[in-house]
Amino acid sequence: MKRILLDTHALIWWLNGDNQLGANAIEHIANPENDIYVSAATVWEMSIKQQMGKLVVPEDIESKVEQAGFSELPITLFHGQQAGRLHLHHRDPFDRMLIAQAQAEGLQILTKDEQFPAYGIRLINASH
Cα 14–28–122 angle (5° rounding)? Predict the structure, then answer.
């Protein structure tokens, strides 16, 4: 069993059936033995991008996540503190939060982001 945190693009690709999500990534997400998490930071990022006109987010994103069998990952004060203490390899605050959450909760991140390896966290490539 793996505990996997989806990066924002991975969640979007999964929900949209996008072929950018690789076969290995699909296997990890679809495996019922794995626990898949979606961070509150991901939905926050998606909502901001929707407001900017860069993304269309389902109105019922919470139920879509639930229907997919994914678990919500709230942002705690500890997560916030840890995100602020990370080295500045990555400047995106949403990605920094995901990295901090993965470190704090012992999660692997499913992502295509090339800057994540600098943090020494366990990753699953989203596009392979």
Answer: 105
